[in-house]
Design brief:
The complex is a heterodimer of chains A (about 300) and B (about 550).
Chain A: H1 2-29, H2 34-39, H3 45-54, H4 61-73, H5 87-122, H6 127-141, H7 144-158, H8 171-202, H9 205-212, H10 217-229, H11 231-245, H12 249-255, H13 260-269, H14 273-301
Helix pairs in contact in A: 1-14, 5-6, 5-8, 5-11, 5-14, 6-8, 7-8, 7-12, 8-10, 8-11, 8-12, 9-10, 11-14, 12-13, 13-14
Chain B: H1 7-12, E1 27-28, E2 33-34, E3 52-57, H2 75-81, E4 86-88, E5 98-100, E6 108-110, E7 115-119, H3 134-145, H4 163-167, E8 177-179, E9 184-188, H5 196-200, H6 210-216, H7 220-223, E10 231-237, E11 241-246, E12 262-267, H8 271-280, E13 285-286, H9 292-300, E14 308-312, E15 315-320, H10 331-340, H11 343-349, E16 354-356, H12 378-387, E17 394-401, H13 406-418, E18 422-429, H14 431-438, E19 446-447, E20 449-452, H15 459-466, H16 484-495, H17 499-516, E21 519-530, E22 535-536, E23 540-541, E24 545-546, E25 552-553
Parallel strand pairs in B: 3-12, 3-13, 17-18, 17-19
Antiparallel strand pairs in B: 1-2, 1-14, 4-5, 6-7, 7-9, 8-9, 10-11, 11-12, 14-21, 15-20, 15-21, 16-21, 22-25, 23-24
Helix pairs in contact in B: 10-12, 15-16, 16-17
The chains are: A mainly alpha (about 300), B alpha+beta (about 550).
Chain lengths: ~300, ~550
């Protein structure tokens, strides 16, 4: 297990290095001039050239990249070209909003997806099962930006039940609609997955044994069915959380949430390369960590799983 | 200033007419009356200060540092938070008269227009209480010229004596900026410049506190700016919110700080959401304007149409042709292109969000004169092409970008050119790429561009786009135009001290350039805005944009 963990960590570093190289190359070769962006579109060519030189943007690719990596290894991710603030604190300051949204989204996935999956499995072939199937289809098909705008228009604007976008205090009110929009698509996946694994578990001999012993169906469900069916859901939670924490930019853009996703989009449009690099590396790190945690958690959940 | 810095305003410009937008002012509601203080009157402004003005933006402001702010989003806040030696009178939309601000009076101009002497106010304080003296003004101006500040408008200041030596590190100070005791300032120019007062009235000409700038370094821009203006920065949470409050120690007194208790800018709000918030009353203004998809319904809504404002912007959309690339080296070809374009179709294509123009200067730019050298005439266009040696037309590449309506308009232009035998393949690139490409010699033969005023002086339209000095790499002189005779005349006008005479002569310069036809002027865009029912005293100025001190919540 220790060797496995170390091996995964080693490859995680390799992956992050690769992500940084590819991202840096993309920003280097992408059209546009960050120096022009900083100076303002009306600035003279001489002013732009001066800024380019000050920032080292006139250096060759490998010089710029090695300088960047050197900085990162010393904990210095650079400064935003646009606002002049250090990159790491800038990203970290937006993390709580993204984290709140991510956790809220996962909660919606679980609260909606799991009960629906259980009902669909236990009422297999019935109207309830069919409703759950249609729900899953709609949830997977509805584009998040469309769903978000619809909810915003009807529930926030027309009914006035929620704030119309933005973020403030108390944060719960601002996060209900975005979290629901984010989570409903995943809930559809959880419904289908959980239904499928429950049906598999229900066919197992130990379930028949439990019923034969006279246990109530609720006890069978809670003590035998769910613990054995939950493993793929745990995997999915880990993957979803890692992905969400990297910034769900569509949801953040629709609802005006100042999270990491919005920050990444702003950085791209503003050619703010240090922030682009920082947000991409941050997201990659979270996804890599979440994958490692999910893999390691298999061994904890299922004693039959052993890593070498 | 080219169009990309006004992307936000360009997206505001929406459907529906307005041939009635004249040069004299904006139009409010559906009646078309000129906008001024009280145009939205009815209730009087309350005594005292109350209420919060909420303004939504899709993105956070790029800069709060007056040394760096050079786009239309941060611009109005610079005028709200900082003082300059002189300012614009902001009683109406197109009022371009100067008024003294940090100076007691307008400067004494001597030495053939090369020396400006100011007497400074003695009661201006920074928000931290420090008294502003001539040393602060000198520092603030030198800071713009210092390359380390990365000020986008540094080139406007290079005409000051000693600026080049200072910028290159050969001098510790700018010799042409002299303090006259604590309350006097003298600025000497290398050559007379009739637009120099306009340069001083830009946000770059604001006074800042040297100690604060040096204390905070990089983070001064986002979070620790120090001004003297009507409003002070209370809070700036990056990409979330910015809050301004009236400056209780403003030199102009409490009455000059208006009737609002707070001004809040909320960031990360899309145009669509912003409009919903205005309609719901959660916001009062949206800096990004009215979404195109909603414009018609809003314009036709009897309630909301009364709360809309529009005016013809001081900008021109045009087709530049590279005078260094064949066949556009031939003036007959360029004139043919001018005759070939039906500009009304383009304005219809953008649903009336513009007014057809045939001149370089917009109608509301001082020095504008009306003429039309090339009325639409495709037959004449074909004849000129034949005369130029292209009886069957020619092929070329029409560059455009993917911003707003640009590619749609460019497609239409390409279709119109095909009508006279000019086969242009459309090349759509990213906005930043286009900017870089047009600034490269002999790269872009023909394209679609725009220019908006930096300040209300006609030289701002000629020097950056049509002067020989501007035809260098990285230029905005997209046609790479250089005519020494035109240059000489433009320079004569630039240094002329008699303003009335100067402005009378600009139409002649406009015509001189248009006779060479390096561009095809297409239209002047119309800006549309909307505000909440609760907001009163709405006023928009064509340089300073939203004038917060005129507004109140009712």
């Amino acid at each position: 297990m220790v060797r496995y963990t170390l091996r995964r960590l080693f490859w995680a570093v390799v992956v992050l290095f690769g992500v940084s190289l590819i991202t840096f190359a993309l920003t280097y070769f992408m059209p546009g001039d960050p120096a022009r962006r900083i100076a303002g579109i009306g600035a003279s060519a001489a002013t732009v050239a001066s800024i380019r030189h000050q920032l080292g943007l006139d250096q060759p690719f490998w010089v710029q990249y090695s300088r960047y990596v050197g900085g990162v290894l010393h904990g210095n991710f650079g400064y935003s070209y646009v606002q002049g603030v250090p990159v790491l604190p800038a990203i970290w300051s937006r993390f709580p909003v993204t984290a709140e949204l991510a956790i809220g989204g996962v909660i919606v996935e679980l609260l909606v997806g799991l009960p629906t999956g259980i009902i669909a499995a236990y009422r297999r072939g019935s109207i309830a099962d069919r409703i759950a199937t249609v729900f899953a289809l709609l949830g997977l098909s509805a584009p998040p930006f469309w769903l978000g705008l619809v909810l915003l228009y009807y529930l926030a604007f027309k009914m006035g039940w929620f704030p119309i976008g933005g973020y403030g205090s108390p944060f719960i009110g601002y996060l209900i609609l975005p979290a629901f929009t984010l989570g409903i698509g995943g809930a559809a996946v959880y419904t289908r997955t959980f239904r499928s694994t429950i049906l598999d578990v229900l066919d197992q001999p130990y379930i028949r044994m439990a019923r034969a012993k006279g246990l109530s169906e609720s006890v069978v469900l809670l003590r035998h069915v769910i613990p054995n069916a939950i493993t793929p859901i745990v995997t999915q939670i880990g993957i979803d959380l890692g992905y969400f924490l990297g910034g769900v930019f569509i949801i953040e853009a629709v609802f005006g949430l100042p999270g990491i996703g919005q920050q990444a989009i702003n950085a791209i449009t503003q050619l703010d390369i240090p922030i682009i690099m920082g947000t991409v590396l941050f997201a990659a790190l979270l996804i890599v960590i979440s994958n490692i945690v999910v893999d390691l958690s298999f061994a904890l959940i299922d004693p039959r799983v052993r890593y070498r | 200033m080219p169009k990309h810095s006004l992307r936000t305003l360009a997206s505001c410009v929406l459907l529906l007419v307005l041939a009635g937008c004249g040069a004299s002012g904006g139009s409010y509601g559906s009646s078309g009356s000129a906008n001024s203080v009280g145009a939205n009157s009815g209730p009087k402004a309350p005594a005292g200060q109350s209420g919060t003005l909420y303004m939504d933006w899709t993105n956070d402001l790029s800069h709060l540092d007056t040394g760096k702010c050079y786009d239309t989003e941060c611009w109005p806040y610079m005028y709200a938070m900082f003082d300059r030696l002189i300012d614009y009178k902001t009683d109406s939309t197109n009022d371009d008269q100067f008024v003294p601000d940090g100076a007691v009076a307008m400067p004494t101009v001597t030495n053939g227009g090369k020396t400006y002497t100011f007497r400074l106010r003695r009661n201006i304080h920074f928000w931290n209480g420090k008294l502003v003296t001539s040393a602060d003004w000198k520092y603030s101006f030198e800071r713009i010229i210092n390359p380390k500040t990365q000020a986008g408008a540094a080139s406007f200041w290079t005409e000051i004596v000693g600026a080049s030596a200072y910028a290159s590190g050969k001098a510790k100070h700018v010799s042409g900026i002299q303090t006259l005791g604590k309350w006097g300032l003298r600025i000497k120019l290398l050559n007379p410049d009739a637009s120099f007062l306009n340069v001083l009235a830009m946000p770059f000409g604001s006074v800042v506190d040297q100690a604060v700038v040096q204390k905070y370094g990089r983070s001064y821009d986002c979070c620790h700016v120090m001004g003297t203006g009507r409003y002070m920065l209370k809070e700036h949470i990056i990409n979330q919110r910015m809050v301004l409050v009236p400056n209780p120690h403003y030199w102009g007194g409490k009455a000059a700080t208006g009737h609002l208790k707070t001004i809040e800018a909320d960031f990360g709000i899309s145009e669509d959401t912003g409009l919903l918030r205005i309609e719901r009353g959660s916001a009062d203004l949206d800096g990004d304007g009215i979404p195109a998809a909603d414009f018609v319904s809003v314009r036709n809504d009897p309630k909301w149409s009364k709360l809309m404002f529009h005016y013809t912007e001081v900008g021109t959309y045009y087709i530049p042709m590279n005078t260094l690339m064949k066949p556009f080296t031939n003036v007959l070809v360029r004139r043919a292109i001018n005759y070939a374009i039906n500009k009304s179709i383009i304005v219809r294509l953008i649903n009336g969000r513009g007014v057809v123009t045939n001149t370089i200067l917009p109608p509301s730019m001082p020095g504008h004169g009306s003429f039309n050298l090339y009325p639409y005439n495709p037959a004449k266009a074909r004849q000129l092409l034949k005369q130029a040696g292209y009886p069957h037309g020619f092929s070329t590449t029409f560059w455009t970008d993917n911003v707003g309506d640009d590619s749609r308009i460019s497609q239409n232009i390409v279709q119109q050119l095909a009508g006279i035998g000019v086969h242009a393949s459309l090349k759509v690139v990213n906005g930043n790429t286009l900017t870089a490409a047009v600034g490269t010699k002999r790269k872009v033969p023909i394209t679609f561009e725009a220019w908006f005023q930096d300040f209300p002086d006609p030289n701002d339209f000629f020097e950056p786009i049509f002067s020989c000095a501007s035809a260098v790499p990285g230029t905005f002189n997209e046609p790479w135009y250089c005519d020494p005779k035109v240059d000489r005349y433009a320079n004569q006008l630039k240094v002329m001290q008699n303003r009335a005479q100067r402005l009378r002569l600009y139409p002649r310069l406009d015509k001189m350039v248009m006779q060479d036809a390096p561009i095809v002027p297409l239209y002047n865009p119309v800006f549309w805005d909307i505000h909440s029912t609760a907001l009163k005293g709405y006023l928009y100025h064509n340089v300073e944009e939203w004038i917060f001190q005129h507004m109140w919540k009712g």
